[in-house]
Amino acid sequence: MPRDLDLRHVISPAVRDLIELANLGDFDRTREQITRLRGCARPINLVGHTTTRDHTTGETIRSYSTSDEPTGRLLTPCGNRRSSRCPACSRTYAADTYHLVRAGLCGGKNVPETVRTHPRVFLTLTAPSFGPVHNRTTDKDGKSRACRCGTHHPEGAPELGTPLTPKAYDYTGAVLWNAHAGALWARFTLNLRRALAAHFRLTQKDMKQLLRVSFAKVAEYQQRGLVHFHAVVRFDGPDGHNSAPPAWAGVDDLRTAIATVIKSTTLTVASDTVGDQEIKWGKKFRADEITALGDGELTDAAVAGYVAKYATKSAEDSGTVDRSLICRTCSGRGTVGGRVKDLCPDCDGTRQAESLRDLPVHRHVRQMIRTAWDLGGLPEFADLKLCKWAHMLGFRGHFSTKSRAYSTTLGALRDVRRAWRLAQADAARVRAGHPVPAPNTVLVTESSWAYLASGYRPGEELLANQTRHDINQARDDKERAKTEGEVWQ
């Protein structure tokens, strides 16, 4: 920055920082970095270098160092899947999830199109009742019915999902159900394979050689703070999506086995303090056939869109907070120091980063958080780490999982993007007159990177806001053009 540049008269810190950025040199490169992030809310700041050489000749093919950047650092997307944390990165995650699920439904991404002919259902599994809650129901004609409290609640009413009688609600059972939901799903898939073997009168060994069950699932929070699962469950041959299942295995067989296993799959959680708890599925579930070519409501594209939408949701959609409540200074121990332990100066021994009483959440959500925190202090539940996951209302599983042979992977999709970016860089080298390696050249890459910080400088935040505005404007224009096109048709 020029020495004679005096910015004391600029009141706004963001504008002052933007002027400083513009005077660092190569401002276009600074803007390029921000634009490439596509509006990421809190990018990762890295420092380091990478060099790619030809293994045979030792010639440097590509080299990069953050010391050549105007700001001396590289900004990379945070990659957070939660829309509440980063809408931009969550859209990328949703798009990847969409393509992953869609590939397992109608092919693509190295999955053959014949997968469309495999029997498959869209399964929804819910949690059981832990007490009556306020809700909105309809009769068989779609007419609104009054809640048990006698009120016709409007859509979005804050009391929806909350207990009718909070003192009688089983908060302990609800939190422990959330904490074991992932294990219950694993037990369900194991029992489903066993049930199908018995249904077809096969041994489990013979079934593995004839039939495979593949799935992709996501978790979603209900208004009452309990997770439920949406999954694509599919019949395959022994080689997964690359082989067709036997002709005698159909959708009806799959739905029958699912209905049987849902009723019989349980887990027992032993506790001398709160009593033994039986973890099981709720009575309400759906297993609808997925159609291939638009003959019904649940088409390939529709199901993939549903799953991708659910994949970016999180606990905040049920009214909780999006951050851990464990004190970072003492890591939830309540004390600091070596041999002589002192109370943590930040939490005063409470182990909490924030007082549970002061959290800006509904009373029902606060009670679930408090219950998770209290259960986390019991020795028999130490392995559940409920204090760490109290802000998630006890749920500690992955929001999105799939079986190995369902389709492609998120890592493979990211590798494709990375390869595309390298191809673009090589094309730029060709345009600049620099040589590029032959297709069969063995390359050696040496890298060294270190984390510096997270987030933008104030001036960079202004540029990021402009990028977000441009992206949203382009999306709105595209939707408007699509709508107008449908009207004209």
UniProtKB/TrEMBL annotation:
InterPro entries: HSP_DnaJ_Cys-rich_dom_sf, RepSA. It comes from the Bacteria. Residues 467-489 have a biased composition (Basic and acidic residues). Residues 50-70, 466-489 are annotated as: Disordered. SUPFAM superfamilies: DnaJ/Hsp40 cysteine-rich domain (SSF57938). Pfam families: RepSA. This is Putative Zn-finger protein. It comes from Streptomyces nymphaeiformis.
